[in-house]
Specification:
heterodimer; A: alpha+beta; Aldehyde Oxidoreductase, domain 3; Aldehyde Oxidoreductase, domain 4; seven-stranded mixed β-sheet; five-stranded mixed β-sheet; globular; B: alpha+beta; Uridine Diphospho-n-acetylenolpyruvylglucosamine Reductase, domain 2; Uridine Diphospho-n-acetylenolpyruvylglucosamine Reductase, domain 3; Enolase-like, domain 1; five-stranded antiparallel β-sheet; four-stranded antiparallel β-sheet; 11 helices; 14 strands
């Protein structure tokens, strides 16, 4: 692999100092003159018809400037609210989950806004809630929405036999001959696995500030994983052209997929339009947990057949995701590319459903839907290895997909490093040696993530002092500004300090897709690279004109251009920039780069968890943890290791202690005390073993990095628990009580 | 389910002496609240569970800042002494190990910088970590009003969840803990899902005093947290153990009896059945550890 001078180096994040000193500006830090404060009235019922909604008393309260309900939303006039995805749905005729917004108030203080919310009168007629996905799927279960049809949301399909359904999305993939495949098998295992909704655990609660200028433009400050998509969404909600909305970037305090959803900004923008004054809104932590959308719970049934030599002959899997009270975000869509994709399986069936229930709606979370399906698949692989008495890594190595294989989606696998990653882990574990303690166990699991690919633009300005300014519209959720600064420094041969990365607003920055799907650095780096090449080409021509030589002969080193190694024909990029903007100059050097959808560069992360169980209380201690992952090329290994460690920490929480607890569909554990996430004392040092099998498509060989390392964690922990105790847990979270119950069952039998 | 909202306007006073504090409490009526560390009070105000019109911050009252120990008078912990200060107080480290253990697991390090032991027991949560240890140590609460002071035996202090024997107009001044007798040992162990920043699913304290002559137990105290409406002593288990020479079988039997005495509920943090099981496990563990410290078992 080629060596670089800045790319591949461990560099501290360029945003770190502002963040640790508290000077970074987040949504909640924006304060404007004459600002009003908004507050949401949330429905307390799981499922109910709104019989009467009266806001007159609230409107009459002194200091209240506006009260809005669904009838005030311009975007609802022309289309079904179901189509305004990833935004709060102000209730119309009925409420479909506890916590759904019913009305929003803007007032001169937050105290008045809260009082006004208390004065809104709503009469509900409660309906029987539908809480279980399996129940909800039954044809005889009444549909939660009378106008919702499977895969044809809110528009009845032409097929006259179709009836409204609680199955929002349905997807099936069939390959080979399933029946024949199972006949070939010497061993067939079938199991069902369940998970509960989990929260991302981002530190920063949702907040938004919106104002309207004299020209009627709506300006919004809010955390969003994609400011351009947020602009489109808010414009649709307000029924305005996108050019009437400007999203100003602010720092984002953790997102993990949860902040494509705009929990407040559309409401805040509408209040600003109604009142003509700036409006600020912020969610309390309990609102974030109850109403800002977790990842879905799931029921997954997997049947797998293998030969006695441990080769998979057939597999069928049914994935049911609990969509909650709104159908807008399809996890089925992700199941297509991320289920049973990393093994060679000649005969298979994948079926996935997003099913409505009267619970909090869900959203994306780090590799959406994929940790849930891997909990089933990778637990199943472990169970098979046990029956066959095979090394669990060996079982995976001999079934792993390789370049040229066809994935279940039909895609032909490009160059991948799955096998190398498994072998790296095998080597690591061999060196580490086996566990000694009686109550200790080791579990391994793979985590696959296909990765998204999207579009980005980038501008590069060459400054007269030789520094370079990069302008992008990306939301930095994971250190992306630092990594792209490294690329600019590399390309011009300048130090990192000479690169400034500016994230523009949606009026000034080039288009940026949302920072989702592990694609940000993978895709954005190409746009940045191309912008650099464009600027370099312009500089070469300026230098060529100056020295009267061929432009193609110039190389870049240490911020200078040099013609075929001739020190006499060398000039600093800053000098060229200065001449270019002078009165007789050629005009400023502005590099432009743009990237369309790249082919994906999928990745596998291999997990190994060592745990110790207190067999009297069921409590799990994670002793050590390692992840080997093919990252292609780690632009900033510090950042990549951080991604892996953060993802595993979230995975450990999901496996052992996190999960929404409902009472009749209402979230009970809505504090950070009872929605328990691990602290530093619950997580060991996580070893990140970076494997670098460069991709064919990413610049420098970059691959998707951020999501793969959470995917395998749930099964790795479950497999380790079985190895320590003999107890197989098929439902998350694997609480001490659940493990102790498993041990008791085991003692009985 | 909780819901965080703005705190209503309230009057704030920070008296500089005990007399001034008691005067204020005498005239202020029942919706005045006393603020020490505030780690429970402010949260309850944000949740709208209480809406005091007056908050009396007693952190500047000298009498409430007392932290003293002597052999005869025992330990005196003023109502506003932060928990982290207790965990570094030499007399507590040397003589009240059980208390140091309990106080070092409440909340988080940040909470312990503000929160107080008096607050922990005044909040009267069944799961209060310091309560089982204090019950075992025979602690008392000194409360005062403009009519004078009185001491409440901690056994009589907890009335119901969130409810104590402190009367209207009365102020918690300090907790007094007698010096543990010679040949005694105890410990507090709790079970939580998360290592830190958690609330006990069950907490157990055991405290044993040995008759050095015949190696029998002169006195045994066992207190349980989070398995009844208040922190409780397991009197039956204690009575069974007192006077006996400890054997592994006896420890098993005591653990069994304590589990039978517990009256847990099922909630978000664990089922009643699991809690009962934890009582069995933790009583066994605290007894083993105390016995081992007394040199009774390996």
């Amino acid at each position: 692999m080629a060596k670089y001078s800045v790319v591949g180096k461990r560099v501290p994040r360029i945003d770190a100092l502002n963040k640790v000193t508290g000077t970074a500006v987040y949504s909640g830090d924006v304060i404007l003159p004459d600002m009003l404060y908004g507050k949401v009235l949330r429905n307390p019922h799981t499922h109910a018809i709104i019989q009467r909604l009266d806001v007159t008393k609230a409107q009459a309260l002194e200091g209240v400037k506006a009260v809005i309900t669904a009838s005030d939303v311009p975007g609802y006039q022309s289309r079904s609210p179901l189509l305004l995805a990833e935004m709060p749905h102000l209730a119309q005729e009925k409420v479909t989950y506890a916590g759904q917004p019913v009305a929003v108030v803007a007032a001169t203080s937050i105290e008045i806004a809260e009082k006004a919310v208390d004065l809104i009168e709503v009469e509900y007629e409660e309906l029987p809630p539908i809480l279980d996905v399996l129940e909800s799927m039954k044809p005889e279960t009444p549909p939660i929405y009378p106008d919702l049809y499977t895969n044809f949301i809110a528009s009845p399909p032409s097929d006259e036999d179709s009836t409204p359904s609680n199955i929002a999305y349905h997807m099936v993939i069939n390959r080979g001959d399933l029946e024949a495949g199972f006949k070939e098998a010497d061993l067939i295992l079938e199991n069902t696995f369940r998970t509960q909704p989990v929260h991302h655990g981002y530190l920063e609660p949702f907040a938004a500030v919106a104002s309207v200028d004299m020209g009627g433009k709506v300006i919004v400050w809010t955390q969003s994983q994609g400011v351009f998509t947020a602009r489109q969404m808010i414009a649709a909600f307000l029924d305005l052209p996108a050019s009437r909305v400007n999203l100003v970037p602010v720092e984002i305090g953790g997102a993990f997929g949860g902040k494509s959803f705009l929990a407040l900004a559309p409401l805040c923008a509408l209040l600003a339009l109604k009142t003509g004054r700036p409006v600020r809104m912020e969610m309390s932590r309990d609102e974030v947990i109850k109403a800002a959308r977790p990842a879905p719970g799931s029921v997954t049934t997997i049947k797998m057949g293998v030969t006695k030599e441990g080769y998979i002959t057939a597999a069928s899997i049914s994935l049911i995701y609990d969509a909650g009270g709104f159908p807008e975000m399809s996890h089925t869509m992700f199941a297509r590319g991320n289920t049973l994709s990393h093994y060679k399986i000649p005969n298979l069936k994948i079926e996935a459903f997003d099913v409505l229930t009267n619970k909090v709606p869900v959203t994306y979370y780090r590799a959406p839907g994929t940790p849930q399906n891997h909990f089933a698949v990778e637990s199943q692989m472990d169970l098979i290895a046990r029956v066959l008495d095979m090394d669990p890594l060996q079982l995976r190595i001999q079934n792993i997909a390789v370049e040229g294989d066809t994935a279940p989606s039909g895609e032909i696998l490009p160059k991948v490093g799955y096998k190398e990653t498994l072998e790296r882990m095998a080597e690591y574990l061999k060196e580490k040696g086996s566990l000694q303690g009686d109550d200790q166990g080791r579990g391994v699991a793979c985590g696959f993530w296909h990765g998204a690919t999207v579009t980005f633009g980038a501008y590069v300005h060459i400054n007269i002092d030789g520094s370079v300014t990069l302008v992008v519209g990306v939301t930095d959720v994971s250190g992306s500004r630092t990594s792209i600064a490294q690329i600019v420094a590399e390309e011009f041969g300048i130090p990192m300090e000479s690169v400034s990365v500016v994230v523009g607003d949606t009026d000034t920055a080039p288009w940026a897709s949302p920072s989702v799907g592990s694609q940000t650095i993978y895709s954005l780096s190409q746009a940045v690279y191309r912008a650099c090449q464009d600027a370099k080409e312009q500089l070469r021509h300026l230098a060529a004109a100056r020295f009267e030589v061929e432009a193609s002969g110039f190389e870049f080193a240490n911020g200078r251009l040099i013609f075929q190694g001739d020190a006499e024909k060398s000039i600093a990029i800053g000098s060229l920039a200065r001449y270019s903007i002078s009165f007789r100059g050629a005009g400023p050097v502005v590099g432009r780069g743009s990237i369309g959808g790249l082919p994906p560069a999928p990745s596998v992360a291999v997990h190994a968890a060592d745990v110790e169980i207190d067999k009297e209380t069921g409590k799990v201690k994670v002793l050590s943890y390692a992840v080997a992952q093919d990252v292609g090329l780690a632009v900033n290994p510090l950042s990549v290791e951080g991604q892996i460690q953060g993802a595993v920490t979230q995975g450990i929480g999901w496996a052992l202690m996190e999960g929404y607890q409902f009472d009749q569909g209402k979230v009970q554990n809505d504090t950070l005390l009872d929605y328990r996430m691990p602290t530093a004392t619950d997580v060991p040092m996580i070893d990140a073993l970076l494997v670098e099998v460069g991709s064919d498509s990413g610049i420098y060989g970059i691959r998707h990095v951020g999501e793969p390392p959470i995917v395998g964690a749930l099964a790795a922990i479950a497999n380790a628990i079985q190895s320590a105790t003999g107890v197989r847990i098929k439902e998350l979270p694997m609480t001490p009580e659940a493990i102790l119950n498993g041990l008791k069952e085991q003692n009985k039998s | 389910m909780t819901s965080i909202r703005s705190i209503d306007r309230f009057e704030y006073r920070a008296p500089g002496s005990l007399d001034e504090t008691l005067d204020i409490l005498k005239t202020s009526g029942t919706d005045a609240k006393v603020l020490a560390g505030g780690t429970d009070l402010i949260l309850q105000m944000k949740q709208g569970l209480i809406r005091p019109s007056l908050v009396v911050d007693v952190k500047k009252v000298p009498e409430l800042n007392r932290l003293e120990w002597d052999e005869v008078g025992g330990l005196h912990v003023g109502a506003v002494v932060p928990l982290n200060k207790l965990a570094t107080f030499p007399a507590i480290l040397e003589r009240y190990n059980i208390l140091a253990q309990a106080c070092s697991v409440i909340g988080s390090a940040q909470v312990r910088n503000r929160g107080t032991m008096a607050g922990n027991i005044c909040n009267a949560a069944p799961s209060a970590d310091s309560a089982p240890a204090l019950l075992c140590l025979g602690a008392g609460a000194v409360v005062a009003s403009s009519n004078g002071a009185r001491s409440i035996d901690l056994n009589d202090f907890f009335v119901a969840p969130g409810e104590t024997a402190i009367g209207d107009g009365e102020l918690m001044v300090e907790i007094e803990v007698p010096t543990p007798p010679p040949h005694s040992a105890g410990c507090y162990i709790r079970h939580t899902t998360r290592e830190e920043m958690d609330i006990a699913v069950v907490g157990v304290a055991s405290f044993l005093t040995l008759s050095p002559q015949d190696k029998t137990l002169k006195e045994a105290r066992i207190a349980l947290g989070a398995v009844a409406p208040t922190p409780v002593r397991a009197h039956g288990a204690e009575a069974f153990l007192t006077g006996k020479s400890v054997t592994p079988d006896i420890i098993e039997e005591v653990a069994e009896k304590a589990a039978a005495e517990a009256n847990p509920i099922s909630d978000l943090r664990g089922s009643a059945e699991y809690r009962r099981e934890l009582v069995r496990v933790l009583v066994r563990r605290t007894l083993r550890e105390s016995c081992s410290e007394l040199g009774l078992i390996e």
